TrEMBL record:
GO terms for molecular function: dTDP-4-dehydrorhamnose reductase activity. Gene3D superfamilies: NAD(P)-binding Rossmann-like Domain, UDP-galactose 4-epimerase, domain 1. Its EC number is 1.1.1.133. PANTHER family: DTDP-4-DEHYDRORHAMNOSE REDUCTASE, METHIONINE ADENOSYLTRANSFERASE 2 SUBUNIT BETA. The keyword Oxidoreductase applies. The gene is rfbD. Catalyzes the reduction of dTDP-6-deoxy-L-lyxo-4-hexulose to yield dTDP-L-rhamnose. The keyword Coiled coil does not apply. This is dTDP-4-dehydrorhamnose reductase. Coiled coil: none annotated. Keywords: NADP, Oxidoreductase.
Amino acid sequence: MTGWLVTGAGGMLGRDLTDVLGATAGVRVTAAARDRLDITDPDAVGAAVAGHDVVVNAAAWTDVDGAESDEAAATRVNGQGARVLAEACAKSGAALLQVSTDYVFPGDAARPYPEDAPTGPVNAYGRGKLAGERAVLDLLPERGFVVRTAWLYGAHGRNFVSTVLGLAARLETVEVVDDQLGQPTWSRALAVRLAELGAAAAGGRAPAGVYHGTASGEVSWYGLARAAFELSGLDPERVRPTTSDRFPRPAPRPSYSVLGHDGWSRARLGPMAPWREQLADALPMVRQAVSGSAGGTA
């Protein structure tokens, strides 16, 4: 029996990961939501990590714009919290899977960022997450795994896909930016991949280091919105393209967030499924969640 601890278990990814692990034979999972475990508290973290073989840190400050105005608070969670978990895992012998972000890159590339590409965050959120990455890799050179993901959506919590479908129920047309490229990734598909990587890590079959946990392919937010409409039986022509300068925000966003996936071969795993395939699989659950939150009107 392999013991897993999932921090941030009340979030979108954490809930999916807890469900996936709970249905996996030979796994004992401890789900630690934010109200149960403060990852910046060394004593609490040490007690929580003890007795587990694999720890997945899905806890994070995810308010990107809020991080811009309070970088210290965001970095305390995303940077120092990861360090506290890594220190506890170093003492206990557990492997740590640290969920990170495409925002550690500047977003000025013209081809997918490989796992070893130079970093260069353009906002406070990215700087805090990069601090967390470095802590895990420094403190756990043999048992630290950084899994960068991007453009996550799913059935739990607010995200781009659920927001767009909610707008479709209220507006005739929706304007979406067409000048940012990325890889929309279903949170449940990422949860399955984290479970696979953690099992490989526990079995000594996966080398520590950086992995990119995003869907294959690439698309703009506009293209994603059109696909969500089309696959939901709605007219995609209701989605209209626009540019990022029409929606100024406190934190700058990378314009190119496409990640390469060569690292998975080290763990004997292939790339994740294409973004459109993931979206088609996810939409029934996302639509159900949207309908429920809107009282059945969406």
